[in-house]
Structures
1.
Amino acid sequence: RLISHLSLNCMSLVTGGEEALKEILRLYDFDNSPSTRQQIDGIVSLQAHHVTKRIGYSFCRGVQVTIQFDEEKYVGAGPYLFASVLERFLAQYVSVNSFSQLVAKTIQQKEVLKTWHPRAGNRILL
């Protein structure tokens, strides 16, 4: 699992669906704590599709990732905080001249919890 983690990119991470993302996140659960496992298991579904956005004076292709969470699995912090961490995590795996954009939803709410700005690595693209 560790060797496959070294050759990751954003699309290989999300094309496996929520189970592939959960498996990678479990690698970072060094303490194997019940609360962390519960948050990881709170990921209900994951969809990804290619999008094209206007960035500055040109257009850029990227991937929009929609993750649906079960709010009942997030006692205290809530899914927003976990999704914020995932947004940064996914942005580290996009290829050069590309971006990722995370959309977070919950199964308890009808509307979108948050849509983050497109991000390439550590940079937000406006």
2.
Amino acid sequence: MHVVSKRRERDTWAPRHRRIPCAARIARLTALWSIALLVSFSAILSQPVLAGPEVAPATYGYFDFPTCVRYALVHSETLIKNRLEIQIQSADLKDAHSEIFPTFEVQTRYYFARTRNYNDRTESNQKFSASLVMTNFNPMLALIKIKAKAILVDAATTTHQQKISEHIGNMAKLFYRISVLEKTIRAERQIAALLKNKVNYASTRKDQGDYDPIAARALVNNQRAQEIKIRGLENAMDQATRQLKIMMGYPPDFHLPLDTRDAANQILFGFNGSHITFADIQAGNLGLKVIAKREQFQSNMVSGAYLRLLPKPTVIFQDINNQVDASSGTTFGVGLDYTLWDGFRRVRDIKRQKLRASQIKIERSEVAQQLYDKFRALRSDIKLAAEKEGYAREQMNLAEASEERALSQYKSGMLTYDLYMDQGVAKVQARLGALNAVMERVNALIELATISGGLNRYNAGIQY
């Protein structure tokens, strides 16, 4: 019995001795799990967004810039109006061609009462008469008119091409501006997401009593200002799209599915303007060509003014029957008409036409000077824009490097989360600066191509 009791004592003591360490081990594990959960929860609350927010990929339509140009050439009301002007001038040219031939008229009369010649036959005093008359014409003046109207048709055609060139240039600027606005809106939304992260961080720290309430309110107001800025950019893009629809002749209430990917290359097709000289601009500028056509027309008008000093040939043909004076028969004759005295109006008209020719010559010189000044300004703008673009690109690289350094400092605890977000905002703003610098250069190149004869000279996808 004594032995048994000792064994029972050992048996009951041994398990109790083994259970005590197990309970302590479980308690320690529970404490460790609690600490781990607290650390995880605090880490989740203050976890930064290490990269920019995810932006949904943009969807693109099928209206790239060459397609927009082709659509505008058919549907734009401005260009249609210019084409109608060419048709009007062509009709005037056909009228001038018709003046080279004589005009015949049939003149009919019915007399309710008339004088009678009782010495003639009775049938010569009938109440109805019909006559064939050829109106007087001047073939030499008709030739001058034909040449003048032909010059006007050429001038209208060149003017139409100039309007198309300017129209396409304005469309190109709008198209590229829409592309820049799309990228700007996406970048500003990234900034808005970063500011939202700062607001959440400040709100959490403020609840913990570790952040200035006024500074937290300022962050909320900055986020609100950013949202207002985005809405303003969206309104600007909608307005630019509406203007593009008007220039294209596109229905205003319909959606315009634009494809703005690589918009600069769609417009310029590699054109950089480095090989353009002022001689190229003088040879290709459509405005100078229109003025040259006007000079031709005015020279023709001077010739016409001199022609009026010469005798005018006259051809008479009449086949009359039963006139008021009871005359009938056929008349045919040729001759010359000359004005002896008109108060020197014809002489003054010669001087007037020469003065107008001098005005057009001065206008051509002024336009050429303006083009030269514009050419020099555009070359300077392109060079300056290239320097700005290089500076903005370097600023973007510096901002990216600063953001990477801020990330490492934040991970090491040397930088707070809000300051790290500030570096992210600065990086996106640097990208926007580079985007605007490129826009300045592209707009200057579009203007240079326009005054050099049009974008169609340098972009095979734009033909008219």
3.
Amino acid sequence: MLAVNGGTGTPQQTASATAAAQTFAPSRSEEWTRGRAEGLKVQVRSKLLKAKSGSSAADMVMLVDTLERLGIDNHFRHEIAAMLHRVHREQQGCTAGSDDDDDLHITSLHKGSFRASLSSDTRGLLSLYNAAHMAMPGEEALDDAIAFARHHLRSIQGKLRSPMAEQVSRALDIPLPRAPRRLETVRYIAEYEHEPAFDGVALELAKLDFELVRSLHLRELKALTLWWKDMYNSVKLSYARNRIVETYFWTCGIYHEEEYSRARIIFTKVFGLMSLMNDTYDAHATLEECHKLNKAIQRWDKSAVSILPEYLHVFYIKLLNNFDELEDCLEPTEKYRMSYAKTGYRQLSEYYLREAQWSSDKYTPSFAEHLDLSAMSSGFPQLAPVVLLGVRDGDGAATAEAFGWAAAVPALVRASAELARFLNDTASYKTGKSGRDMASTVECYMAERGVGGEEAVAAVAAMAESAWRTINRECVEMDRALLPAARLVVNLTRMLEVIYLGGRDGYTAGADIKDLLLVNLTSTMEVVYLGGKDGYTFGSGLKGVIADLLVDPVHED
């Protein structure tokens, strides 16, 4: 399963947000902060209206990009839509040789030729590198663009100054189109004042908005930590990974905005329940117990607890009770959604059982046979509808049609599932896996092609890149009405790049992403007014609290 699969290892204690959330004490009230933010929104909105009528297409695109990277674009959706509509209309009449095309490097992207002058233009190289990662299948010319930009960015990386140095470093790790928005926001806020087109009003709004959202995240994490502590201590499955903070961190990468609070709570809980099931199949249960667990899950009735070994009784009852409680969180017209979550959980159990059988039989399938099963057991096809489960209908993401689309495992979801499997298996291969795991895609490729591990890892990495291109194509070609749902699913996919960066498994080995958790949940944001006479700081004291709680005695050196 994505993020809850890939080697259980020794259970590790994770961060408790309770103490951290209690430590959080902003020196200004939330009411004051919200009032100030609303006033700043009026000023930014006015600037957007002026830009729409008097700026060039290139300037408008840069402005939209800035708002997105600052994490405040959600407050100006109508204004941004109007600006992009104008840009689209103007670009339809543009010729390929216009100055704006040169500024945006559109000519290079379309023709596959890269001017010598671009090699010394760091900002242009970075734009080219990021834009080329929006390639779709068949656009091989963009492979040359990526290679060209990557080569020159690496050659000058050691000579760059802040903030360009940090932006290039991040892009070389994870290209901007694949980077989770929330993580980019916390870094870009710190860098934005050094940008040529720096706007103090937008920056202050971004800092205020970040802190308001972070305060809500800490309250949610406190509640989820208490829920998980009760769950984990009650089920007494000591072999299972204790990963509620890492799970919530992943969830915030899907949707961080305040309006998605219910969705975050529901998704995190379902993810946690899937993780407990995965670890039972993968790390502890005998094959006979796996069959019994699957039989009980397919029945989905408390009377089926008698089928199970005693150590799974509490888990099974808690599982059913929690799904009932999640359904109670939904409005009467939304309750049909729970059927998608239950069906997905049952399906995942079936896939885990098949994997357990393969492992027991020491069966090494063909690469294609393996991927047919392991893409589905990655958990991604089951989590895609769960992403929408708690989303309110206001933005058009959680429609009945969207649930049907997500549950049918369309090409976008299938490609994301394959990407999850490729990244997970690469991490498992690089870090070593428990003896109970079945053969990975890397090992199946090695056996089938008769190649070594390094060559197999490179081949699987190329398949992961191909999966991203399929995702890009589907986002362009799909029904526009499904785009709001698709964006959330792609956000779930983006978090894979962070969790598995460099071959790590940041879910199983939580200490590997400790710094990212600290940045996302405890970054101090100092907000200084334009006159420079007033300011305040949020979040002091949190870093030490969470850092201490995140220390992993098993994996820390």
4.
Amino acid sequence: LPTDASDIADLIEYAILDGHITHIVPDPESNSLIIDIQDAGNGTLTLTIPRTVFDAQTDDGEDAELFVIIDKTEVIFEEMTTDIDRTLVIEFPAGSEIVEIVGTFVIPEFEAISIVILTMAIMPIVVMSARTCSLGKYCG
């Protein structure tokens, strides 16, 4: 897993025609991904985003609608979904600078995820120690 926000781009497959992506950053407060682009002509941005990184779901676990905003204007986009990812094809006009994709979930602070993973890794050791102690062995 990534160690900071700059690594989120490593988890997302993307291709851009007529422009360059400079940053892909999660915004946990608004449950969105912020994508900075430069040198944009009339182009297309294609993103394949793992659902573990970013998603939009209802309380029942069904897919919810994503929203794509380019420079503060909501736009229509194409979407293909699987159980593991969502692929978006977004057309953008010349001069575009910021693409925001709004969902219901985005990876929070990556340090928090690291703590969860560490806890999961240590848990079996704690359980085994507790079992050993309960069998009457020395528990120091």
